[in-house]
Design a protein that fits this description.
Elements lengths: L14 H6 L18 E7 L4 H14 L3 E5 L3 H11 L4 E4 L5 H9 L4 E10 L1 E5 L7 E3 H8 L6 H4 L9 E5 L4 H9 L9 E3 L2 H10 L3 E5 L1 H6 L4 E7 L5 E2 L3 H6 L5 E9 H6 L1 H12 L3 H5 L7 H33 L1
Parallel strand pairs: 1-2, 1-3, 6-10, 7-8, 7-9
Antiparallel strand pairs: 3-12, 4-12, 5-9, 5-10, 10-11
Helix pairs in contact: 12-14
């Protein structure tokens, strides 16, 4: 699985090159059923959602070889910055859009559509040799990541008096924002912060007193190296990350994954329309392909129906304007 996570750097998937040369073995004309659709679609955002987009693009390119879909991964926050500037057609996010981001879009006159394309569970892990941490409450997590607990003994009096080494994604990641809101009550996270999630995995793997958190797909890919920690909710109920508990939301750190589309560009860009329709018709298979979790299938169907109605409505509006223009010419 490819994990590109470069802070402040534009990283574009290999499927951009496939789209540019027609896909399907490099044929210029392509043999996809949507080969008459041409254009360019630009996205940016979450490095958690990015691999889903890459997998979708591989499949999409076979049917729409003349549509180039590029997708950078500058983090959820970085992606929204470009979306607000108008330089992208869609933005990937591992958290809902914030109120200040909504305001900036409104000030720019940009309307948008929100689509949920998968589900994730922020997974907390410790070193494989840690034989005492099996579960933590959200309160204990907050104690660790606020810096209040310096040693494991500060978390639980029965645990060793060893200094905790906490690791976290940095502020460019939606995972950081989610953890700050859900665990820290929007407070600051005091930890060694990393732009590259793979570095967090490596740090937890190499340090016996380490603790780190990231998307479920990173845990699945590295589960032989790490030990998962079950999380108690506010009522003391123990929750464990799995495909089932993440999909039904019973895992306390479950979260939806999003694509936000620029409404005006969605009206005008046939390639963007087809890519979003393809994404929803995929019904989360690509999310599962990269180690994340699909939504219940009916969630995709309902969103696809709304997307089609939006496209049809604006298509009818364009046709009506064309007819009115012809009448005026006469």
């Amino acid at each position: 699985m490819k994990k590109w996570q470069l802070f402040g750097t534009t990283v574009v998937g290999a499927s951009l090159l496939l789209g540019a040369c027609g896909g399907n073995g490099g044929s210029d004309s392509g043999s996809g059923e949507g080969k008459d659709v041409k254009g360019e679609v630009k996205g940016d955002g979450s490095s958690t959602v990015g691999p889903i987009i890459e997998k979708l693009n591989e499949k999409f390119n076979k049917k729409f070889p003349n549509v180039t879909v590029s997708n950078a991964q500058s983090g959820t926050g970085g992606g929204f910055e470009k979306f607000i500037s108008g330089s992208t057609d869609f933005s990937n996010a591992s958290r809902p859009i914030k109120d200040d981001e909504k305001k900036k879009l409104k000030d720019k006159g940009i309307d948008y559509k929100e689509y949920k394309i998968g589900q994730d569970g922020v997974t907390v892990t410790v070193n494989k040799d840690n034989d005492f941490v099996k579960e933590l409450s959200k309160k204990q997590l907050k104690k660790i990541y606020s810096g209040e607990a310096k040693t494991w003994k500060d978390v639980n009096s029965k645990w060793p008096d060893k200094e905790i080494k906490p690791f976290s994604p940095n502020q460019s990641h939606g995972t950081y924002d989610f953890f700050s809101e859900e665990v820290m009550d929007k407070g600051d996270i005091k930890a060694d912060k990393n732009s590259d999630t793979n570095q967090i995995v490596s740090n937890v793997d190499k340090n016996k007193q380490a603790i780190g958190y990231f998307g479920y797909d990173y845990y699945k890919e590295n589960k032989d190296k790490l030990k998962v920690v079950n999380i108690k909710d506010e009522k003391g109920k123990l929750t464990k990350p799995s495909e089932k508990t993440i999909q039904n939301g019973s895992y306390v750190l479950s979260r939806p994954l999003f694509i936000y589309a620029n409404e005006k560009k969605l009206k005008d860009n046939k390639g963007l329309q087809e890519f979003l329709k393809f994404t929803l018709k995929d019904k989360g298979k690509s999310a599962e392909d990269v180690g994340l979790v699909a939504l219940p299938k009916d969630k995709y169907t309902k969103q696809l129906d709304k997307l089609n109605k939006f496209i049809d409505k604006n298509s009818d509006s364009k046709d009506s304007k064309k007819d009115d223009s012809k009448k005026e010419d006469k």
